């Protein structure tokens, strides 16, 4: 792990290790997926660090590149990825790119044609209109890159100009991605394989070696995949277990916060039993105001329960990160909304690592310095227009 550790003011090393181990075992038993040891997980903050790391890994690929994304839009960065993937395909690397049929709709068609001509196998995930209406609502929201079965990336970043830069102003979105090395790469690769299997006949070939992984670091990682479901699903269990296990502090930073009644109540209940709950959300620069409204209907209740809520001011906040008790971090594609919990294909890494968690908590502290807290007394005095807007989205809240 490359992050600089921050000593916990409230909890010593032993305490965080105990919390981490307890949450790890609960997750293993209740989700049924073993965590792996010996991983290196490197946090990457904003496009200035995320994109060079991804492009570097692509450039070094010798055998296989698998990439899936919900967002592949436009701009110079979109062309740079297409060039990098195409160059490797021309060099004989097997390159597979899975694009969500709705999320990636804005991609330039000639980029897709160019990549295909270079030998990249491009597949579309549930692309309308050749789709049953029952499937339209279930999108591939995962962002995954796996290179040579040994290096993986996941997190919130989309391949588009909006994500370039360092969150300095409204044109540079704030996001967090991670690079993973070690046995947890298999779980990330499986998240790609699940989507690919649905869209393409060939799942693997002789270029996949299926070798073992050398230890690459100290982090314990469980890879949790979420999939559309009518009933309870693993992503919901993951969130429920970490909230119910938290003893000291939970920090959430999420692009889209519109939980259902169950998770709203669970957040409130967790705060009422004395756990500090801090939620960081986008503010005036949010790209989808309707999503903000979906969460704002819950603010009054959450604030009354003692939950603290901030809104990030400079630009769109697009992160999907949660830390618990300075011991465990969740990072991946999952927002705290119904789309991520009920409808879409998601991936989240549960990372049991004190240093990694300290690094993400440090990012959170930095972000708070550029955020405004929502105060309960002021929120109660919000305008009638705002209240009416909150009510107006109720009929569509289950799709947010
Ligand atoms: O769904 P997210 O969180 O990946 O965000 C992508 C949005 O469509 C951006 O507008």
TrEMBL record:
Domain PLD phosphodiesterase, first and last residues per copy: 136-163, 313-340
Alphabetized Pfam families for the sequence: PLDc_2
Disordered: region residues: 1-21
Name the record gives this protein: Phosphatidylserine/phosphatidylglycerophosphate/ cardiolipin synthase family protein
Organism: Actinomadura rugatobispora
